[in-house]
């Protein structure tokens, strides 16, 4: 139970931090246990960008997520129209965010975030906000995606270059 109380406290902390950054935010009540549907821990949006966040915290290193947790996050995010993010918080550090595909996948099909990786390459709340501020409307993002896909179809870009741009 102590672990759940700490996790709940960390999720509330994340909600408050996202709120302070200008996001409308809500914590999914008892995500993972109150319903048969798998819900992310936190939903946040600012009218431009929307995020579904699976929040994990650890006093040690590393943080592990099951393949099922990641699959559920990506599935929900796609259906909801949000960007999936794993939020990682290590004791005495800030929150860091990752797209699920940027996480290390173990041989057993689980995912891992090391503290060192979070500090070096994780996105901060300010990064999420800046991406939102730079991203423009959904219509603009969709038009940009069409342009990139057309460039791939025309042979101007290869798939890896397009993936980086998107």
TrEMBL record:
Family of this protein: Belongs to the Holliday junction resolvase Hjc family.
Pfam families named in the record: Hjc (PF01870)
Cofactors, names only: Mg(2+)
Name of the molecule in the record: Crossover junction endodeoxyribonuclease Hjc
A GO MF term: DNA binding
One of the GO biological process terms: DNA recombination
Residues annotated for Mg(2+) binding in this entry: 11, 41, 54
Keyword annotations of the record: DNA damage, DNA recombination, DNA repair, DNA-binding, Endonuclease, Hydrolase, Magnesium, Metal-binding, Nuclease
Enzyme kind, highest EC tier: hydrolase
SUPFAM superfamilies: Restriction endonuclease-like
Source superkingdom: Archaea
Role description: A structure-specific endonuclease that resolves Holliday junction (HJ) intermediates during genetic recombination. Cleaves 4-way DNA junctions introducing paired nicks in opposing strands, leaving a 5'-terminal phosphate and a 3'-terminal hydroxyl group that are subsequently ligated to produce recombinant products.
Oligomeric and partner information: Homodimer.
Species whose genome carries this gene: Salarchaeum japonicum
Cofactor note as given: Binds 1 Mg(2+) ion per subunit.
Residues the record marks as active site: 31
Catalytic reaction(s) noted: Endonucleolytic cleavage at a junction such as a reciprocal single-stranded crossover between two homologous DNA duplexes (Holliday junction)
Coiled-coil ranges (or none): none
E.C. no: 3.1.21.10
Gene3D superfamilies assigned to the protein according to its UniProt record, in alphabetical order: 3.40.1350.10
Site (Transition state stabilizer): 56
PANTHER family per record: HOLLIDAY JUNCTION RESOLVASE HJC
